[in-house]
Specification:
The chain is mostly helical and 307 residues long. The chain is built from 14 helices and two strands; from the N terminus they run ααααββαααααααααα. Strand 1 and strand 2 form a beta hairpin. The two termini are 16 Å apart. Keywords: Isoprene biosynthesis, Magnesium, Metal-binding, Transferase. This is Polyprenyl synthetase family protein. InterPro entries: Isoprenoid_synthase_dom_sf (IPR008949), Polyprenyl_synt (IPR000092), Polyprenyl_synt_CS (IPR033749), Prenyl_diphosphate_synthase (IPR053378).
């Protein structure tokens, strides 16, 4: 099913305003309390964060907040923080010691365009800037909401989330001894490495929208199902799409002998799992009625995308 014009318009508009806001955060002009912004570091950070991507994560922040009546600078800034964190993870993921990729979004990766040391520092700087943005009163005047956002992003991105998932991913390549992953292992790895940040993107909107416990849990359930669906769809694309279409190298997991749900379930089984996860995500939004239509379309979009 093709996305509605409303969905495509909102996705495009979110990408536009996020790009503008990221560019404003990544200027050479120092912020209060800073001593200086080294030009090489700033240029490399802009290379990493600007000029590409669907901006799905900030879109989810913005739309989940909008569902609960929260709009404006708060959701936009929180979305930018999640995107900065995501971009940091991509820069480090591309390093020779990790996935050793030369191409990202159709352009040279940061360690190729600059050098490995600069890429490490770019990732460090993008990560710390993400938390600075969330902690700034400009994101929300309520310190409890800012603290909740910082705590949520830290847990989603840290040892029990994305970073821990990356370690499991490296282990799955056999770097630390023979690794044979079963379905439960693959699901755990993917929930941590990819799913945790996507889930938090939705939860951040719930935090900004001052959701009650039940509403917040419904949105978290939606985010978890969307995150899982995203990764299965990504594994399918990795087998079927070209590097030119995706803007990055494909077939990496297969080359390294690392199991995915495509391997464990088969291609048709993986497609069925995508459909099941879409249904699960949509069911979690039942209490919102037609107001959640954009989020329903978002989960379909992640499994039907071609890039």
């Amino acid at each position: 099913m093709a996305p509605s014009s409303t969905f495509t318009t909102r996705l495009s508009e979110a990408a536009r305003v996020v790009e503008e806001a990221l560019a404003a955060l990544l200027t050479d002009k120092t912020a209060p309390g800073e001593i200086a912004r080294p030009p090489r570091l700033m240029a490399a950070m802009r290379h990493a964060a600007l000029g590409g991507g669907k901006r799905l994560r900030p879109f989810l922040v913005i739309e989940a907040a909008r569902l609960l009546g929260a709009e404006g600078q708060g959701p936009l800034r929180a979305g930018c923080a999640v995107e900065l964190l995501h971009c940091y993870s991509l820069v480090h993921d591309d390093l020779p010691s990790m996935d050793d990729d030369d191409l990202r979004r159709g352009r040279p990766t940061v360690h190729k365009a600059y050098d490995e040391a600069t890429a490490i520092l770019v990732g460090d700087a993008l990560q710390t800037l993400a938390f600075e943005v969330l902690a700034d009163p400009a994101t929300d005047p309520d310190p409890a909401i800012r603290a909740d956002l910082v705590l949520g992003l830290a847990r989603a991105s840290g040892l029990g989330g994305m970073v821990g998932g990356q370690l499991l991913d490296l282990s799955a390549e056999g770097r630390y001894g023979r690794a044979e992953l079963g379905e439960a292992d693959v699901r755990l790895l993917q929930a941590m490495k990819t799913g945790a940040i996507l889930t938090f993107s939705v939860e951040a909107g719930a935090i900004l929208g001052k959701a009650d416990a039940g509403t917040r849990q419904s949105l978290v359930a939606y985010g978890r199902a969307l995150g899982a669906a995203f990764q299965v769809a990504d594994d399918i694309l990795d087998r079927e799409a070209s590097a030119e279409a995706l803007g990055k190298r494909t077939g990496k997991d297969q080359e390294k002998g690392k199991a995915t749900l495509v391997d464990l379930l088969g291609m048709e089984g993986a497609r069925r799992e995508c459909r099941r996860l879409v249904e699960e995500a949509e069911a979690s939004l039942d209490s919102f009625g037609p107001r959640a239509q954009i989020l329903r379309e978002a989960v379909r979009f992640v499994v039907e995308r071609q890039v």
